[in-house]
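Reading a protein record of the kind used here takes little practice once its layout is understood. An example of such a record is reproduced below.
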Amino acid sequence: MGIENRYWRDPALGEPTEVQTSGGRLRAFEAGSGEPIVFAHGALVNANLWRKVVPLLAPEFRCVTLDLPLGSHEIAMPDADLSPTGIADLIAEAIGALGLERPTLVGNDSGGALSQIAVSRHPDLVGRLVLTSCDAYDEFPPRFFDVLLWPTRFPALSRALFAPLRIRALRETPLAFGWLMHAKLDERAGDSYVLPPLTSPEAGADFARFVRTVDGSHTMAAIEKLRSFDRPVLIAWSRDDKFFHSGERLAADIPGARLEWIEGARTFSMEDQPERLAALIAGFVREPEPVGA
C-alpha cells in the first residue's frame, strides 16, 4: 500500500521547517536563496506538487513551499480556522513568520483561490502574484468537484469514498488525478496525497472543516479587491485544463495581469510541463518592479 510514503516529501523541496501560527504549527520547505517565491498547493495534495519546479528555480531564488492543512498533511491543526479566509490568513502569517519581504506567491487549484483571498485580505503581502489553473469567481469549487467532494464534509464518508485509491492504478482515473494531469503520477507522491486522509482521522477532520466552508462567495469577494490590485500578476494557465476556464477573464479583470498559456498541460502544469512553468515564473520574477508599485 505504500504506507511508508504517507508523509514522504521529496528532498528536492529543500529543508523542512515549522512555522508557529495562531492556529498551530505549519510545515514548510526551503531551498535556494535570492528573491523569495512561495508556493501554495490545493486540496488533497501537499508540498510534493511543486517537487519538479522547485529544483529548477532554487539555483536563483529562495523557494518556500507550504504544506497546508488541506487533507494530505501530517501536522493536524484542530484549533485553526480552516475556512478559506482562515487558511488564507495562515499563508500570510507563514510569510511573515519566515521573514519574507514581498515574495512572489504562486498558487494552483484551490491553492490559487486561497492565494487570491490572501492577497485581497493582505494587499501588501506580496510583490508579485502567479496564478496557475485554479478556482476563481463563483466556481469555488467547480461543479464537478462540488459533487465529488460533498461526502468529504463527513470524515467517515470521505474515507469510504477514497478507500479504493489505496490501489495505485485507480489514481489514474478521472475521479482521481487522471483529468488533472497528462503525466503519470509518481507513486510516492500519490501515496502522500491519498493516504493521510484515509489513515489519519486528524487530517480527515481538518479537511472536512475546510470543505464545509468552501463556496464562491470567498473568491467573488477576492476578485472585487483584485480589480484594483497594483502589483504584477502572471496568469500561467494550462491549455488542456478540463475544469478551470477563467484564465482569460482573470487577465482582463486584474490590472496589469499577463496571460501565458502552458501547452500540453492540464491543471497540474507543474507535473506536465515543469520546465515551461519554471521558466515563466523565473522570467516574471526577474522583471523590474513597476514604478510606484
In short: Strands lie at 15-21, 24-31, 35-40, 61-67, 104-109, 128-134, 233-238, 257-262. The domain at 3-286 is CATH 3.40.50.1820 (Rossmann fold).
